[in-house]
Every structure is written in structure tokens, then in C-alpha cells.
Amino acid sequence: MKLSGSTLLRRVARTALFAAPALLLSACMVGPDFSRPAAPASRHYDRQAERALTAPGVPGSAQRIGADRAPTDDWWTVFGSPKLDQVMRQAVAGNLDLDAADATIAQANEAVAAAGGALWPQVDVAAQDGRQHTGRGSTATRYAIGPQVSFDFDLFGGNRRRIEAQAALAELQRHRFDAAYLTVTGDVARQAILLASARAQMDALDELLADDRRNLELVRSAERYGSATQVDVALARSQLAQDETLLPPLAQQRDTARHALSVLAGKGPDDWTPPDFALSDFVLPADLPLTLPSELARRRPDILEAEAELHAASAAIGVATADLYPHLQLSASLSRAGPGAATLWGVAGALTAPLVHGGALRANRRGAVDAYQASFAIYRQTVIRSLGQVADLLQAIHHDNEEYSAQQRALDAAGTGLRMSQAGYRAGETGLLQVLDAQRAYQRARIGQVRARTAQYLDTAQLSVALGGHSRGALLARETANDNAR
Predict the structure, then answer these.
(1) What are the φ and ψ backbone dihedral angles of 351, each rounded to 5 degrees?
(2) How many angstroms separate the first and last alpha carbons of the chain?
(3) Could you give the strand order of the β-sheet that contains 122-135, starting from the edge strand earlier in sequence?
């Protein structure tokens, strides 16, 4: 039976289309099949810190760690601050770094789709036009136009390894988004706490400066009556001046935190002002989460990002290995050529095998193996660095407990001293200067306590971020925030 050119082309295309999956399944894939690296075998980050934070003698007011408990979905809600929740939603919906990361995920997904096209027949249309000398001084216009079909049988899985590599890179971008999400939410919590801390310290400092000014006036008055010297006045003036130097840095900390919150929310500082946070807006959680190191390696985004990069490097070895083997390609074409509009068709199979490439193909494979080893070292270093970060934070929280307890004792002692000085002044046993000195000591103790409490809040937030938060739901959380913002 004689087939027309167009019928033959359709049959070739149809055969390639339906044969593609079967051929791909039957073809082998060279190169290593990726398997996830083993999770850390250790069950501890820092035994000393963990014992200190779980010991029976830990004071009831100190923070403790839970056993194998991950941070909550919205980890910052442990602070019980509606203001923080509001700003966090604003930042998650409007942050431009997250916009960029979101678009990069979409780009990576399209790269996977583009790579997947190599597994299917490729159909193109070709056209030619030109002038041809026919003899006897005459020329004629020649043209040809028609479809072309080609299919790469991917005998050794090079195309499939390329798809695998692109899919791993797309996964990498999703984990990179999760990491950016954790960074943004961690920064929002940090800046809100610093803003509240600056305000609390400024309030205590205002009272301290008021005591300094009263003290200076009393010394000046005593100097006029001869019961104090100019040296006493100079000392009182110096004390006021020294304490006044503490105010501008705190005001700068407050303003910087405000500006940072605006930027994190995707707004200019003059376009949006965050609420004024106070330390009383936050509740310090008594029980802190702590996952096992093996769980950390399966949830922390920077570790998962390094794992995805390792997967891509593994697939790249398969691509470089497939290039060492033959390639089989089937092609067919159909065109109408003129003058005369004759139908031309052709079917061809091409088998190409590398022979001499100056050692380039094997060098490419060795380079791919080296790149995999480099990625594996980076992965291991990322895991180790994350374990060290969590260990540092556990020690910091332990020492925060100690510092806050010491500052609380100092504040209690200063309060007792102030009350005794006030009682002695009312009884005529002490002078007003002693009362003012006791007031100054009390305000300084207040500032110390604020700083100690600030450290507890900051390290609590950083621990949740270091444990990976709940980054797996970052994209969904952002979509929800965007819907709420609209």
C-alpha cells in the first residue's frame, strides 16, 4: 500500500507520540539516583544547657524547654501580642523580598516545565525561499514550506536527569522562600521587641534624669547656704550630663526600629507607621519548643535548601554521564515545494555516538562529581552550623534566666533601699540627697531589668527561627495574608 507524504508524517508523529512513554520507561538512566543524606544521629545540641533548662531546680519564673516539640504554626503568637500579630500580617503580605522570592519560585517551576518538553516530539514548521538559475540566462523562484517532527529517544536518561535537576532547583527556591519568610518574621519580632525595649528604658531614664535635676538643684541650694562646695555642684552637674548621654542612643534605637518595621512591611517610613510597642504588650513564654537534631535537618529551610542543591548536583552527574553514550533521534518532514507545488517528504533516524572530544566529556563528568562533593560538604556544614546556632541560643536562654534573676534581685534591693531612705527622710534621720541617690539606684536597676527582659524576648524569638519555625506553610501563610490584606 502506498502512503502519501502527509499520511506518513502523521503516522510518524503519532508513533513517536505514543511510543515516547514506553521507550522512556524502557530506557535506562545513567548516573546516581539521589537519596537524602542521613539526619544527625545526635539527640542533643548542648547537654549542659539542656540540663540547665530542664533541671528540677529551675525557678518557676525561668524559661524551660520542652521535649521534642516544634514551634507552632505562627511561632510569634507565643508572645500573646495582638499588635505583633497585626504588624506580622502586614509584613508577610507586603514584604518585597517575599515578592521576589515568590516570583523566583514561579520562574523555577516554568524551567521544570520547559525541561519536560524534551520528553515529547518536537513539531516545527520550516519555510525556504530563494532564486535559482535555470540556464539560458533565466532564473526561477523556488520555495518550500511544511512541518517537521523530531523526537529524541533519550536512551540513557540525559533529558530526564535535566528535568530532575530543574525540579531540584525549583525545590531549592521553595525552601529559599521559606528561609526568607522566617527571616522576615524573625526581623519583625526583633524590631518590635527593640522598639518596646527602647521605650521602656527611655521611661526609666526620664525618671532618672528628673532625679538628677532635683539633685543638682538641691546641691546648688546647699552651696548657696555654705553646706556644699562648688566641687559638689560640679559633680552633680557631671552626673546629669553623663546620664543625658544615654537618651539619644535609645531614641535612635526606637526610631531605627520603627523605620525597619515600615520597610519590612513594604512601606516607606513616612508612608506607614507601626504601632508603639511596650514591653507590657508581650508575654514571655515559660515553655520553649525544642526539636531533635534529626527533625531540625528535615524542617529547617537553609538545610533543605542545601539538600535540594545537592540533589541538583547529583542529577548533573547523570546528565554528564549520559553525554558519554549514544543518542538516537527520529525525524520526519513534509513540505510543498514550488514551482509546481510538489510534495516532498522524508523520514530519518540518527544515531550519534561520541568518539573523540579531546577528553571534554569525561572532564565534564569528573567536574560534575567534584561539584557534588562540594555541595555535600556545604550541606554538612549547613547542618553543623545550625546545630551550633541552636546550642548557642540554648546557652543564651539559660544565661538570660540567670541575668534576669540577678537583675530582679538588684531591683528588689534597690526598691528596699529606696523605701528605707524615704522612711528615714520622713523621720528626719536622712537627708534628701540620700533619697535622691536611692531613687537613682532604683531607676538604674529598672533599666538593667528591662535589658535583661529584652534579651529573653529576643533569644526566644531567635530560637523559634533557628528551629525552622513552621516554614513548610510559609507560602500558604502568605497567600492567606494577601487575601486578608485585599
Answers:
(1) -120, 115
(2) 66
(3) 122-135, 138-152, 327-338, 342-352
| Per-residue pLDDT reduced to its tens digit, 429-449 | 888 778 888 988 999 999 999
User: Which helix (H) or strand (E) element contains residue 355?
Assistant: none
Query: pTM, whole model, 2 decimals?
Result: 0.85
Q: In sequence order, which residues have a C-beta less than 8 Å from that of residue 352 and are 6 or more positions away?
A: 326, 327, 329
**Nearest C-alpha neighbor of 199 from the set 251, 273, 246, 245:** 251
Mean pLDDT across 62-77: 86
Mean pLDDT of 415-426: 88
473: containing domain: 30-121+158-325+360-485
Q: Are 204 and 446 in contact (CB under 8 A)?
A: yes
Provide the residue count of the chain.
Answer: 486
Give domain status of residue 403, yes or no.
Answer: yes
333 pairs with which residues across the strands?
Answer: 148, 346
Residue 332 within any structural domain of the chain: no
Q: pLDDT tens digits for 116-132? A: 999 998 888 877 776 66
pLDDT score of 1: 43
Scanning 290-350, the segments in alpha helix (DSSP H) are 293-296, 301-322
Q: How far apart are CA 484 and CA 263, in angstroms?
A: 20
Concatenated DSSP letters of 112-144: HHHHHGGGS-EEEEEEEEEEEEEETTEEEEEEE
pLDDT value at position 318? 96
Q: How far apart are CA 157 and CA 161, in angstroms?
A: 6
Report H helices in 323-431: 360-426
Spatial CA neighbour of 390 closest among 302, 473, 472, 321:
302
Residue 186 in domain: yes
